[in-house]
Automatic annotation (TrEMBL):
An annotated GO BP: polysaccharide biosynthetic process
PANTHER family to which the protein is assigned, alphabetical: PROTEIN RV3402C (PTHR30244:SF9), TRANSAMINASE (PTHR30244)
Taxonomic superkingdom: Bacteria
The UniProt record lists the keyword Signal: no
Gene3D superfamilies, A to Z: Aspartate Aminotransferase, domain 1
Name the record gives this protein: DegT/DnrJ/EryC1/StrS aminotransferase
Any GO MF annotation of the entry: pyridoxal phosphate binding
Family note: Belongs to the DegT/DnrJ/EryC1 family.
Lineage: Bacteria, Pseudomonadati, Pseudomonadota, Gammaproteobacteria, Enterobacterales
Keyword field: Aminotransferase, Pyridoxal phosphate, Transferase
One Pfam family, short name: DegT_DnrJ_EryC1
InterPro entries, A to Z: DegT/StrS_aminotransferase, PyrdxlP-dep_Trfase, PyrdxlP-dep_Trfase_small
C-alpha cells in the first residue's frame, strides 16, 4: 500500500498530458468513423461536462448487418483488444441470477446494451496507423455483410 501512494502521486504529473493525448485520439476516431462508417453510433460528449476520454464505446445494435461479437472476434484475430462493456450483465452472475429482479425480461435495455457496446482501444501513444487499421477492419466487416445481403445476380440465358 505504501508503495502505491508515491506511484500514484508520480502519475499525477502526467495526467494532463495523457488526457490531452486521449482527446486527440478520441477526435481521430470520430473523424475516421464519420468518414468510413457514419451509421455506427458513438458517444458525443456534452459541452457542459469535463470528459476524460478513458473509453471509446461504439454501439453495434442487434439489427445491424454485423454483430458486436463478430467484430470483437475479428479484431482479436488481428491482436487488437477491444472490450465488450457491460457484458455479461451483473444480473447474470451466479450470485445474482436467482433474484426475480435479475430476470432479463425486467432489464430489456440493459440486456440490449450488454450485447451492443464495444469499446475500441484508446490509450496515450496509440499510433494513427493502428487507429486506421482498427476502423478498416470494422469497415470491411460492414462492407462484407452488405455484399452478403445483396440479392444474387440472376442471368437468364
Amino acid at each position: 500500500m505504501k508503495c502505491r501512494r508515491p506511484w500514484g502521486l508520480l502519475q499525477l504529473k502526467y495526467i494532463d498530458g495523457a488526457l490531452q493525448e486521449r482527446a486527440v485520439i478520441y477526435q481521430r476516431y470520430v473523424e475516421l468513423l464519420d468518414a468510413a462508417l457514419p451509421a455506427l453510433e458513438y458517444i458525443k460528449p456534452a459541452s457542459n461536462i469535463e470528459w476524460n476520454y478513458s473509453y471509446f464505446p461504439v454501439l453495434i445494435r442487434a439489427d445491424s448487418a454485423v454483430s458486436r461479437d463478430a467484430i470483437y472476434a475479428e479484431l482479436r484475430k488481428h491482436n487488437i483488444y477491444a472490450r465488450r462493456y457491460f457484458y455479461p450483465l451483473i444480473s447474470a452472475f451466479p450470485m445474482y441470477r436467482h433474484f426475480p429482479t435479475a430476470n432479463v425480461q425486467h432489464l430489456p435495455v440493459a440486456d440490449e446494451i450488454s450485447h451492443a457496446v464495444l469499446c475500441l482501444p484508446i490509450y496515450p501513444g496509440l499510433p494513427v496507423a493502428d487507429q486506421r487499421r482498427i476502423i478498416e477492419i470494422i469497415q470491411a466487416w460492414f462492407i462484407d455483410a452488405a455484399h452478403a445481403a445483396e440479392p444474387a445476380l440472376v442471368v437468364n440465358g
